[in-house]
């Protein structure tokens, strides 16, 4: 056997031993022939700890949770994109629920508007939607902003009703 083959076999054996030690440990047999379970109050660092914060090498293969992802309501999202379709979309981020547009004139003319839409909740609810509108000369009136929010929510309800028919 050559030296390189012996080293390869030694490293492979060490890797197998390391992976085998990552598995769950068997509890020792008690006097009645069954297995004794470890006490439930073991600290997290103990090798026999089996609580919710236990981690193993296999955790790298599990899907990771991203706490920065916001679940958005698809009807409000699509309603906002449809109602504000006359504005050029600059950025959309469905993971945080933000739509940002550039300046554009509304249908029928008038001053150019820019919008930022924030959808903060998966519920089809007015509290889930925040719209910030502005013109080149500054923010728009609260009534105009409310009218755009109402149009988005109305379109979202129409989309949901359409989907519920199927």
Automatic annotation (TrEMBL):
UniProt entry tagged with the keyword Signal: yes
Pfam families associated with the record: DUF3576
PROSITE patterns: PROKAR_LIPOPROTEIN
UniProt region (Disordered), positions on chain: 24-50
Top-rank taxon, per record: Bacteria
Keywords (A to Z) from UniProt: Signal
InterPro entries for this protein: DUF3576
N-terminal signal peptide: 1-20
Coiled-coil ranges from the UniProt annotation: none
Protein name per the record: DUF3576 domain-containing protein
